[in-house]
Amino acid sequence: MSRKSGIHIACLNYFDHLGLINNRIMRQKRAVLSVSGGIDSATLVYKAVKEGYETRALTFIYGQKHKKEIEYAKRICTGLNVIHKVIDLSPLKEILSGSALTDSSVEVPEVPETSEYYETLSTTIVPNRNSIFLSIAIGYAVSIKADHVFFGAHLSDRGVYPDCRREFVEAFERAERLANDNKQLVVAAPFIDMYKSQIIKLGTELGVPYKDTWSCYKGGKVHCGVCSSCRERKRGFEEAGAFDPTEYER
Ligand SMILES: [Zn+2]
């Protein structure tokens, strides 16, 4: 091999290498996640941005009884300058029935302070909700060449919501890698072993403005304070020993 062609090959290798690194940085640094307006996804979007991901957020309208959480999801994303898209899936309400969150014939239950909030959470299950949302998030990620889709499932969800369990997340990642013929695709649920209070502690360190989040299943002027989600929120701040900026009705 002549010296000239050796240098030529070395240069090509060098530029190939640079291209690969660049490509990796660009691909690794882009993430999609769903922001619901609540504490977990707000913390997750802050974490993703802090870790250097170019983050895109989706909020889904799926026939919830109120739109309050969408307004709060917008606030969180605007505060971070994150591109945020609201996807209207409200016609799904017609076929995904039986949940207190979407079905007007099912009331959002009140939970006594002493009871475990998850006892009544089962009424809030929307069939296959996370699976549907994640599929759309992955479709978006693939379209914009993002390899990461983050999912805000946490430990307390595990007992009630089957699609918030580690087995589901791992199986889903495998299925989506096959569906998109992309072994780089990552579906990550970094809070899956964390309690709400631990998420709040992390979010407090990250500077998440929790006043700009909404948890209540009812769409009142302020948080009702007695639905299972409000109970969990109150308890989370208490256990975290963090300041709770939420205004509760009760
Ligand atoms: Zn409430």
Description of the molecule:
With 250 residues, this protein is of the alpha/beta class. The chain has a single domain, classed as HUPs (Rossmann fold, 3-Layer(aba) Sandwich). The chain has 7 helices and 5 strands, in the order H-E-H-E-H-E-H-E-H-E-H-H. Helix 2 packs parallel to helix 3, helix 2 packs across helix 6 and helix 6 crosses helix 7. The model has no long low-confidence stretch (mean pLDDT 86). It binds zinc ion. Zinc ion (ZN) binds next to helix 7. The site of zinc ion has 8 residues, from helix 7.
Helix content: 40-55%
- CA-to-CA gap between the ends? 82 Å
Low-confidence stretches: none
Mean pLDDT: 86
What coarse outline follows from CA principal-axis ratios?
Answer: globular
- Quantity of strands, as a count: 5
Major sheet: 5 strands, parallel
The CATH architecture designation is 3-Layer(aba) Sandwich
Bound molecules: zinc ion
Biggest β-sheet: strands ordered side by side in the sheet: 3-2-1-4-5
Number of helical stretches of at least 4 residues? 7
